[in-house]
Design brief:
Elements (H helix, E strand, L loop, with lengths): L3 E4 L2 E4 L1 H21 L6 E7 L3 H16 L3 E7 L5 H13 L5 E4 L9 H7 L11 H8 L9 H13 L7 E5 L6 H10 L3 E5 L6 H6 L3 E4 L17 E4 L3 E4 L5 E4 L4 H4 L5 E2 L6 H24 L1
Parallel strand pairs: 2-12, 3-4, 3-5, 6-7, 6-8, 8-9, 9-12
Antiparallel strand pairs: 1-2, 10-11
Helix pairs in contact: 1-10, 2-10, 6-7, 6-10
The structure holds 5,10-Methenyltetrahydrofolate.
């Protein structure tokens, strides 16, 4: 499959096509598990509150879970849900043998501590990979942990262009627990020289111009400009912001000024159709792996 189309100089890395292929592979592996007599892998997604964007993502995750031949369990809780109520639900999901993966959609309402609830998930079911056990395993370079979905998707997109990243300068813009920090661990493991830039970084354009790889996850639409980019560099755009156009319709834009950067970069991911679909496929992959590991222990 050719996932690379021309984007006026830069080649597009087609995350949508790659995600479709990987989801199909997962579906075949799920079929094999079921033929061996194992129960269907199940994913529980918990959404607290009624943020419309989160609702779209969560529904999309449920649809994709079915495409991969797995079961999905949705839990939509009101904005006023207490931390105790959420912890009780997590306890139930931890014990439920039909559920192999648990995802608590972030961000959470302010009365709930995201670190506390994330750590309440059984590490074997923590398919977001955000709890302290899986975070620690990744930091130690262990291979038995679960890797967060968005950075894992970014890694697969990068590997499609660079099978060997040894010695490359990688700049990560954004230091969140969800993306920036785990991304740094993954690229370190690929033998990159990793720089993490964040809100207090003073010389961002200068750092960007030295980078062979840029992964940007800040939520600042259009942050990365054309003259920040080294010619031929590979750009992974994690940002996703909905903006209103003059015609009254909205469209999605990333953290990269695409129209400028496409003339300079070697490869670039589009928004939409880049990192987003790969994030969902990696969630399915993590859920399948969690189920498979459990079945292997039971055999
Ligand atoms: N615990 C947790 N884990 C997450 O992985 C997580 C989360 N919380 N909170 C919110 C962010 C956001 N996120 C996206 C997933 C898919 C698309 C996606 O499929 N985007 C499509 C477009 C979708 C559209 O049209 O709106 C695309 O880029 O092509 C976007 C965003 C996962 N997140």
């Amino acid at each position: 499959m050719d996932n690379h189309n021309e984007a006026n100089g830069a080649k597009l890395i087609d995350g949508k096509a790659m995600a479709k292929g990987l989801t199909e592979e997962i579906r075949q592996e799920v079929d094999l598990l079921i033929k061996e007599g194992h129960p269907l892998p199940g994913l529980a997604v918990v959404l607290v509150g009624n943020d419309p964007a989160s609702e779209v993502y969560v529904k999309n995750k449920a649809i994709q879970t079915h495409h991969a031949g797995m079961r999905s369990f949705m839990h939509m809780l009101p904005q006023s849900t207490s931390q105790k109520e959420l912890l009780t639900l997590i306890e139930d999901l931890n014990k439920n043998p039909q559920i192999h993966g648990i995802l608590i959609q972030l961000p959470l309402p302010e009365q709930i501590d995201p670190v506390l609830v994330t750590n309440a998930i059984d590490p074997a079911k923590d398919v977001d990979g955000l709890g302290e056990v899986n975070t620690g395993r990744l930091a130690l370079g262990m291979t038995n942990g679960i890797v967060p979905c968005t950075p894992l998707g970014c890694l697969k997109l990068l590997q499609s262009v660079h099978p060997d990243m040894t010695g490359m300068n990688a700049l990560i813009i954004g230091s969140s627990n969800l993306v920036g920090r785990p991304m740094a661990q993954l690229l370190l493991k690929e033998n990159c020289t990793v720089t993490i830039a964040h809100i207090h970084t003073t010389n961002l354009p200068e750092l960007a111009r030295q980078a062979d790889i840029i992964v940007v996850a800040t939520g600042k639409a259009g942050l990365v400009r054309g003259d920040w980019v080294k010619p031929g560099a590979t750009i992974i755009d994690v940002g996703i912001t909905r903006v209103m156009q003059e015609n009254g319709r909205s469209r999605l834009v990333g953290d990269v000024n695409f129209d400028e950067v496409k003339h300079v970069a070697g490869h670039i991911t589009p928004v939409p159709g880049g990192v987003g679909p790969m994030t969902i496929t990696c969630l399915l992959h993590n859920t399948f792996q969690a189920a498979k590991r459990l079945y292997e222990k039971q055999d």
